[in-house]
Predict the 3D structure of the following.
Amino acid sequence: MKKYKLFIKKRIAWLSVLLLITFGVGVYDQFFASPAIVANPIFSFQAGFSASLCIFAALCIINYNKILHDGEKLRIQYNKANDERLRLVRYKAGVPILLVTSTIMIVVGIIAGYFNETIFLTLILTALIQISVSVIMKFIYLRKL
Amino acid sequence: MKTKIAQLRKIRKISQEELALAVGVTRQTITSLEVGKYTASLPLAFKIAYFFGLSIEEVFDFSEYVVEMEENNEKI
């Protein structure tokens, strides 16, 4: 359980980095972005995406902190993370690699979108389809196993 | 694979949640094991049998595999 506590602490650290980066991007978008960037149609998508990532990171940090200070919740979370059936379901659904590649596609899509809208739409659509397939597979195997 | 987990739990008045916490899995995994949807790995099967103080064969029903083995042996 000590190792798992350390793992949770590392996760909190990484989420804090993500929170800082997305908060920084949000501050830049709000106060320092040039009018040319703001006028770009991709800007609103990018602002919304970074804001939602910021909120997600904050909520995860709060949740993990609660888990760290509650022995019962820590044990339940540990069981959930190491449950062999759930591991098999995650493996079959392609988690977490599909989520990682989808996130990369969205970030790259946003950057490329400032130059070419078609590339943006293609990458975002592909990422959404990937995430949908992963979610559907997860539900199928959760029911099957 | 059929198991006697549900009966053993009822006899000893143990909830699925308690068993799951004890053997290191989620309650849903215990449910799947009880209805025969999921087959436990050897370590998990051992943990469950150890929890009940029984052997693996007393908790899990291997009869279908015995029949399969006998059918294979007949073919040979």
User: Anything to note?
Assistant: Chain B has a mean pLDDT of 92. Chain B touches chain A at residues 20-21, 24-26, 28-29, 32, 37-38, 40-41, 44 (CB under 8 Å). Chain B has six helices and no strands.
